[in-house]
Design a protein that fits this description.
Elements lengths: L3 H6 L1 H14 L22 E3 L7 E3 L4 H13 L8 E4 L13
Helix pairs in contact: 2-3
């Protein structure tokens, strides 16, 4: 999450570090994307892991080492790290919006 508070807390450094690690490992099937504010400033830096057919997991209070551990254990290994997770699943009903709003 790269809102102002996330960036101030170190999210850009973590993002760049993860990008370098993904490149170093030659992982072609992982998309690293920046998003906006998650609304939990005191828990930044944060990241959300989304794997097809599984609920998203939101991680908080991250640093480079924790983010790399999440990459290896959750993203590549399929095992979420409960010690760093603050939420799994969607907050509520999700609606796809198509067209002009």
């Amino acid at each position: 999450h790269m809102g102002t508070c996330g960036i101030a807390a170190g999210a850009r450094d973590i993002f760049d570090s993860l990008g370098s690690e993904i490149d170093r490992m030659g992982l072609k099937n992982i998309r690293l994307r920046s998003t906006g504010c998650a609304g939990l400033c005191s828990r930044e830096p944060m990241m959300t892991v989304e794997i097809p057919d599984r609920p998203p997991v939101v991680y908080a209070d991250l640093d480079r080492d924790k983010a790399k551990e999440i990459l290896l254990q959750h993203v590549l290994g399929g095992r979420p790290i409960t010690d760093y997770a603050i939420r799994a699943g969607f907050e509520g009903h999700q609606t796809r919006v198509i067209g002009n709003v």
